[in-house]
Design a protein that fits this description.
14 helices, seven-stranded parallel sheet, nine-stranded mixed sheet
């Protein structure tokens, strides 16, 4: 069916590559490329021998010319960007130059500012449309599956959706006093930024961790969760009919919050460079270097995740509530692909999004967020490839 160039060799990339190899009728050939080729080679060695042909390459994803050369050499049908969010635009530039479809899991962030918005990537809309290629933005879980859930609810359950609460619960325990379940730099930037939500078409900003709620999550139980800013709020507010308010909540344990506050207080979460022994270093990047590698957490993480959306809207003139979610077990993920559930819940949808483009099930040139496409084939693939969804009518609501 097609060829995919996968840029990145971390935990999410590892899951995505495993899943591509489980779907060889669609992914006939993949090339794994990263700044550190040895990581790519290790993944190839682990998965070689199946129907999917695997090759590797070294590439600096900050360098558009290197990316173009690699794309021209491998000639993929789709580029799956699982590198850092700072590199989204260089990879999009390379895809434009070579007229190849693009998929990512997180919006572009400038390296020097913790800013989560789609404006930079949406600016490519006309150029991608003219080139006849697709940029599929946010094909992870949140953003990603949360957008597909919203489109599915809009298509099958509602005439209009007025309120969406996205709830992301990780009840996993890795045994460390402090560690992050995905890239520490991205994770801490996200959590330490000001919170925000959209109400009546306007952004409402909050202090970091200012708004706390307790929610009783199916298969997990009651957990503290906090309102954060998250990029899919911006696109869902535009693409889902009838939105009056949309919020995002994520769970955190007290130990994580205590450690994070201490690190903030001493300046270790700063992204402003400082002088240290004659060199410029970014404190957050140094902190990332001393924290456990998220890829190492798989064998020691136990428990489950629960990520989903609670919708309130109208159907046939009557108010209705609906909850769509997925529960994922850390140890089951590790047994299957050698990664914990945080990487799993992002890597599986990255593969599915790319498969939607390769099979032509989604075919609309331009730059699009995931909820702009027909959700049904994606929802079917979630059940097929390890992220089965569950639904509940009249769920508990968030205040």
């Amino acid at each position: 069916m097609g060829k995919a160039l996968i840029i990145g060799a971390g935990g999410v990339a590892s899951v995505c590559i495993h899943k591509c190899c489980q779907n060889p009728d669609v992914f006939e050939e993949i090339c794994i490329a990263s700044r550190t080729k040895s990581k790519c080679d290790a993944l190839k060695e682990k998965l070689d021998g199946g129907k999917t042909k695997i090759s590797t390459a070294q590439v600096n994803a900050d360098n558009v010319d290197e990316l173009i050369a690699l794309i021209n050499s491998f000639k993929p049908d789709v580029v799956i960007n699982l590198a850092l969010p700072y590199q989204d635009l260089t990879i999009m530039d390379a895809c434009l130059a070579t007229k190849v479809n693009y998929v990512d899991t997180a919006n572009y962030e400038p390296l020097d500012t913790a800013k989560f918005e789609y404006s930079w990537q949406w600016a490519y809309r006309e150029r991608f449309e003219k080139a006849g290629i697709i940029a599929l933005l946010g094909s992870g879980f949140d953003p990603g599956v949360t957008g597909v859930f919203s489109a599915y609810a809009m298509k099958h359950q509602f005439d209009e959706i007025n309120y969406i609460d996205i709830l992301d619960c990780n009840a996993g325990d890795h045994g460390y006093p402090f560690a992050t379940n995905f890239n520490p730099e991205i994770n801490i930037r996200e959590v330490s930024a000001k919170g925000s939500y959209i109400e009546d078409g306007k952004w409402v900003e909050t202090e970091p961790m200012e708004i706390k709620r307790v929610y009783d999550f199916p298969e997990i139980g009651k957990k503290d969760m906090y309102l954060l800013h998250h990029e899919e709020l911006e696109s869902l507010a535009l693409n889902i009919k009838g939105i009056k308010r949309i919020r995002f909540f994520m769970t955190f344990g007290q130990s994580y919050l205590t450690h994070l506050k201490c690190l903030e207080n001493v300046g270790m979460t700063s992204i402003e460079p400082i002088d240290f022994e004659g060199k410029k270093i970014v404190p957050l990047q140094f902190l990332k270097a001393v924290l456990p590698d998220p890829a190492s957490l798989g064998p020691r993480t136990v428990g489950k995740t629960n990520i989903g959306c609670i919708f309130i809207g109208k159907k046939d003139g009557k108010e209705k509530t609906y909850y769509l979610y997925n529960v994922c077990d850390h140890q089951e993920c590790y047994k299957e692909v050698g990664s914990q559930a945080i990487s799993y819940t992002t890597g599986v949808p990255a593969m599915i999004g790319a498969a939607m483009l390769l099979t032509g099930k989604w075919n609309k040139p331009g730059v699009h967020n995931i909820e702009e496409f027909d959700p049904d084939p994606f929802m079917d693939a979630l059940n097929q490839f390890g992220l089965p969804w569950k639904e509940s009518f009249n769920p508990d609501l968030v205040e």
